[in-house]
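REQUEST FORM: STRUCTURE PREDICTION
Request ID: SP-0412
Submitted by: Lab K.M.
Chain count: 1
Length (residues): 176
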Amino acid sequence: MDAYDVILQKRDTRAYAATPLPEDAVRRILQAGRMAGSAKALEPVRAVAIRDGAQLAAFAACGNFTPHVPGAALAVALVLVPEEGMPLGEFAQWRGPFDAGRAAQNMMLAAWELGIASCPFTVHKGDAARAVLGLPPGHIVINAVAFGYADPAARDPMRGQRPRMALESYVHWERW
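STATUS: Completed
RESULT:
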């Protein structure tokens, strides 16, 4: 499957089979995240890979819309490491969240190509996530991705296309 086909076919999945992911697949997914571009090559993103069921449940409690996370084979928290001397209040204007999104998308596309489903999620309770993940001071996690093989009893997300708005409605040329 080429990259464009993966992009067109990828679907978010919130129902996973109780099947562990092969180690080489996990490494490939994490490597895809590591290879995402980074503004000014600062590489402000790190990953915390979670496979333990109790840890998945504890991490899921850090989000508001995360009932699917405890059933995943893997969740990856994208941790933002602040630049030296950066006040915490500047994270909102900092490029780190953009780089984290790039890493998440790389991981999800690499997983889909391997037949592994995924779903990104927001971590709403930052202090709780810092405690659950044991993050150093100043490090934050805003988003994460759940991974696993799609539950065959659930709607098959690996098949078919969902209707999307037409390109002509999505794109405005030169000005709105």
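NOTES: The beta strands are 45-50, 74-80, 117-122, 140-148.
Reviewed by: T.R.
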